[in-house]
Design brief:
The chain has 323 residues and is α/β, with parallel strands linked by helices. It folds into three domains: 79 residues, no CATH class; 65 residues, Methylated DNA-protein cysteine methyltransferase domain (Double Stranded RNA Binding Domain, 2-Layer Sandwich); 140 residues, Winged helix-like DNA-binding domain superfamily/Winged helix DNA-binding domain (Arc Repressor Mutant, subunit A, Orthogonal Bundle). The protein contains eleven helices and twelve strands. The strands form four sheets. The protein has a four-stranded mixed beta sheet. Strands 6-5-11-9 form a four-stranded mixed beta sheet. Strands 7-8 form a two-stranded antiparallel sheet. A hairpin with a 4-residue loop joins strand 7 and strand 8. The longest helix has 21 residues. The radius of gyration is 25 Å and the shape is elongated. The two termini are 33 Å apart. 29% of the residues are buried.
Length: 323
């Protein structure tokens, strides 16, 4: 899993603030100088702290009682915390899916965005979000990008990134994203299934809208959510071919119908709602079940990786589907 911040950066953070405001001991100041010479992220953070050092100097020069100085320092610390909470680092990378922006805050990855042909911040919704300070940075996001490429090559089945869901539009949207994040690799479920999972079976359209505005596609795998008919339906607005491509990476079989694409349900293993077993698609227990109640798996390996056991009635372990 990607760490939120390297341990050495966490250990020096208090000295970083003290050095920026002129309060560091000589030894601590030297440690900070040495550290920021090698660490780009802390160097940027140090620069932002220095931007408000003038406020600190003014407070020190003004005659004030001890309690006023204490209140001023509390205010300074609050401003520093506010700066950190609003700061979002980002990079734009080429990928097999086109240019992708990856952004993260101090809480985790907050945005993964398809940018089509424009490879700059101006094409991103990040540039239009009020109250956010952006900076183009660095090594940690580069590591995320490498993991993303591994996933797109089929060399990685999980992107275990810390996530910041603050860009979700509502608590309901966050609940939908959390339910979607739990869909296993190589599996698909329906919008109706997600609606049931979040406790509102009639909210199928609302689920579709929440996923349309998913700030973290691929990582929160909305490409694994399909229509109850098996149709791929939409993805990221008008990017249905990307949904087909992502499902193909995960081994999900896709059929071209007259008007759109469908998952090949008859060639996939099946889990009924919250059961602990997976079945063949011909299992008698599934006769009256619609896709709204099911999760489909591309292979036995994928089903068993999700913690499921073979059905004791249809025995997919003894009668596997043809490859």
């Amino acid at each position: 899993m990607i760490k939120r911040k390297p341990q050495v950066c966490l250990e020096i953070e208090s000295d970083l603030v003290a050095a920026a405001t002129g309060d560091a001991e000589p030894g601590a100041a030297r440690r900070v100088e040495h550290h920021i010479g090698a660490c780009a992220a802390c160097r940027v953070e140090f620069g932002r702290y220095r931007e408000i050092d003038g406020v600190v100097g003014a407070l020190r020069r003004a005659p004030a009682a001890a309690d006023s100085v204490a209140r001023a320092r509390e205010g300074l610390e609050a401003r520093l915390a506010d700066l950190r909470s609003r700061l979002v680092s980002y990079r734009v990378f080429p990928s097999p899916l086109g240019h992708i922006l990856i952004a993260r805050s101090e809480h985790g990855v907050s945005l993964v965005e398809y940018l089509d042909e424009r490879a700059d911040l101006g094409a991103s919704r990040l540039s239009r979000i009020a109250g956010v300070e952006t900076q183009e940075d660095g090594a940690e996001i580069e590591a995320l990008y490498r993991e993303l490429l591994e996933y797109l090559r089929g060399d990685r089945v999980r992107l275990e990134w810390p996530l910041d869901l603050r860009l979700a539009r509502s608590d309901f949207h966050r609940a939908v994203l959390q339910a979607t994040a739990a869909i296993p690799y190589g599996a698909v479920t329906s919008y109706a299934g997600i609606a049931t999972h979040v406790g509102n079976r009639s909210a199928v359209r609302a689920v579709a809208q929440a996923l349309r505005w998913n700030p973290l596609p691929i990582v929160v795998p909305c490409h694994r959510v399909i229509g109850s008919s098996g149709s791929l339906t939409g993805y990221a607005g008008d990017k249905l071919p990307l949904k087909q491509q992502l499902l193909g990476v995960e081994g999900v079989p896709i059929l071209r119908a007259r008007r759109d694409f469908h998952v090949a349900r008859d060639t996939m293993y099946v889990r009924d709602h919250d059961e602990v077993e997976y079945c063949l698609p011909t299992c008698g227990s599934l006769a009256s079940r619609t896709l709204a109640n099911l999760t489909l798996f591309a292979s036995r390996e994928r089903a068993e990786s999700a913690g499921l056991a073979p059905c004791t009635a249809c025995r997919p372990d003894l009668h596997p589907l043809s490859a």
